[in-house]
Write a structure and sequence with these properties.
alpha/beta, Alkaline Phosphatase, subunit A, 2 domains, 7-stranded mixed beta sheet, 12 helices, 11 strands, about 10% strand
Length: about 450
Amino acid sequence: MAATRPTTSLDRRSFLRGIGISLALPYLESLAAKTAHGLESAPIQIGKTPVGDPLRTAFLYIPNGVIGSRWEPTGEGSDWKLNETMQPLAEFQKDFQVISGLEHQNGRAGKDGGGDHARATATILTGVRAKKTAGSDIRLGVSADQVIASALGDKTRFSSLELSCDGLRRSGACDSGYSCAYQFNISWKSESLPLAPESNPRLVFERLFGSGNQTSERLARKAAEDARRSSILDFIREDARSLQKQLGSNDRSKLEEYLTGVREIEQRLKRMSSFGPPPSVDATTPAGTPANYEDHMRLMMDLLVLAFQTDSTRVSTFLLAHDGSNRSFQSIGISEGHHELSHHQDDAKKIEKLAQIDLFYTRQLAYLLQKLRDTKEANGKSLLDNSMIVYCGGLSDANRHSHENLPVILAGHGGGLLKPGRHVKAAATPMSNLHLSLMAKMGAAMDRFGDSTGVLQGI
């Protein structure tokens, strides 16, 4: 019989998650910045624009594909017109580019059969085929945001920020034999460690700025929380020493791996303390999670903008909803579930409702772009000027489970590194090429990423 982990160890892991401490993997040299072959230009400083301003990157995920006939623009290059779904973005047409023709081959069925929704979410930022399993032996790959976060290192208080409007799912079976970890997480620290996103706005705010409604209250509580966490870590370390004598060699190895994570938490707390107290913001702590989906999304977007504005982080992911989500949209008069509708079988009424859902989501993107454009840097530039925002989905036509010609919008000017205001047509190109390009612009260049074939030129 295989050795089992002591129940006390499992309880401690659950306890740590409950108080907000999570384990992270160490910095890997293989993720450090390299020179990417064929790159047009790249900033010399990691995470900065060519003139030295902070450069930010965010990835937003939309579920269940789009109605392509109403999504894809007409024309190409700078001579293009927005289609119906992108009309809410009309005033930002010079601030974003639509990239057509990107695909994820590792999202296709291949020999794995069903599970396109799980693969869509899993591949979107990794470009890697997920191991088909509903057990604990998940295997995927490091996501693009985490490559950037690793390169950024200790330049910001938080290396990355993971957000969602869905509940937390890191285990159990979901889509056609795939673990829920694949379907509910787009940020992966390693091939077996998804970074669970936070969906509660209050917890996001308190993580960024401390708890309480006044700056002085937040600072006092932050100091008390740091002392409490330090005490907890001391307890774990002492208790682990006594446990080691009772364990077999296999469990000792597992415990050492766990303690490595504990040491990293200590280092992270020390690094965060070096930044001084959390930044003061003119905002009140959110009460919790809004019942209305649109309000929830927009509140999370407000927090994302605050995190960028205060330079608390320079890279973030936001899972608006997991692929396969069957959420209804009562606020726009749609009672059927999104996933249910997405298998429309060319039913005109269902297609019309899906187009309205697509429109609903682009209105949320317009809200975020407005907030970024209205938020100014010290030198008068806007956050939108100094950001690269990827709005994308892992399926194009959900009715056919198509992983080709994915819906992708790249917004922002990237501090002058991007060329917005265009429709870029890339013929059957791995989406990993886009990630490779953005990583390089963030100063985290690699020779290859996922299933990339080279950087995506001309963006």
